[in-house]
Design a protein that fits this description.
Blueprint lengths: L1 H13 L1 H30 L8 E6 L2 H16 L4 E7 L4 H7 L4 E5 H8 L8 H16 L1 E3 L9 E6 H7 L4 H7 L4 E4 L10 H8 L6 E4 L5 H6 L5 E5 L10 E3 L12 E6 H6 L3 H11 L2 H12 L5 H12 L8
Parallel strand pairs: 1-2, 6-7, 6-8
Antiparallel strand pairs: 3-10, 4-10, 5-8, 5-9
Helix pairs in contact: 3-12, 3-14, 5-6, 13-14
Length: about 325
Amino acid sequence: MGDKKYMNTFGRLCNPAFRRAIKLLTLCLTVSIIAVLGLTLVACDNSTEGPDAVQVGSKDFTENLILGELYALALEDQGIPVERRLGLSVAVVHEALVSGDVDLFPEYTGTGLMFILGLPMETDPQTVYDIVSREYAEQFDVTWLDKSAVNNSFGIVVTREISERYNITTISDFQREAHNLRFATQGTFEVREDGLALLEDVYGPIELASMSAFDNALKYEVLRGGQADATVAYTTEGQLADPYFVLLEDDKQAWPPYNVAPIIRTEVLELHPEIAPILNAISADLTGERMIELNAQVDVEGREFADVAREYFESIRDDIQPNP
């Protein structure tokens, strides 16, 4: 059986017509491979990456991804070569900056103060910014550019119906009416030092009608479905673009500020001083409301973060300062 199969195959190989077909097929494959290689080389030639490219990084959540892409677009628009390092783990991005694997990324003042520098909590935004600016320059040779008005801190959210029924617009109001409110927690807010305990230290006892634990991803649906009246949130989450929800004012500044700003290796900034006015112009335009809207386009509407960043960049492009 095996010998017969072998002889049939050998006979076909010896057939002149078969050999001509094989040659034609080989030629076609060779041409195709050359064409693909040519396209690849063209693509490489059009890349902005290179040994002098600025490595723009970001953390691996929506807001930071949008900002990292926005920074990259603004630099490229001014002729600065960029290589993207977006979506890095929160646990490694600072070390990547210090080691030179990343040149700049969006960071938060509160994160820098308490988690990177290990310093005590402060609640005044300018004080926090001044401390991290000074310490990062001394310890890491890293420069904080201008901070934006975007403050991604803790917050308390209620439904609009609850806000209007009990006249709740601030956390002081929330504390006063807590006995009427069902609270949705994610299982950590009531035990963290910077959670419920911190609020009670600043605002006084918070005696809630009830407290139930839900998965963090479901908290807004829990409120919408009437299973709770209030929950803890981050203050720039995209779901807050929905007028169904009301973010309460932290009127006594219990929580520390987490203003976002570009931070950059000082060595890179000295090589490219034009980066500062470009990224500072972006920070000047950003507000908390605008950041919520951008996050909503990704997390609620399902758009790609790169598309959202590009669309926003095009809308502010004329405000970005050119190279000096």
